[in-house]
User: Fold this.
Amino acid sequence: MVSYLTARPIGNIIIAAHQQVTRQWWETRRHNFTLYTSPLVLQETAGGNEEVAAARLDVLSDLPALGVTDEASSLAKALIAAGAPPAAAPEDALHIAISVVNGLEYLLTWNCRHIANAAMRRTIERICRAEGFEPTVLCTPEELLNE
Assistant:
């Protein structure tokens, strides 16, 4: 999500819309939530062009980072074993698991392939509950834009 917040506008209309919604959410709604990041997000954010990465990291600089715990790693493995997300996306499973084990209400993302994915939602929720956790709501900024 932070990449859409800081990126230059792009010609692809879907990505441009995501950028606009992200900026609107950041300007109007972020103060209604307690925001966190994680080492995974910081690592992903630091990649690529140094100047652009610095702008992304600056946005996250004041946010507390939630760690990768044994509990989160175990839940991520259980999610992958159930196929939601697939084994090819272990980082996505860990993003979900970090949010869940820390009791976060929402995980805000534009990753609709493996995280905010309606087809995987039931499996993710079932595995979280089976492992003793209440699942986090996995959603896009658009879903939390309006009150």
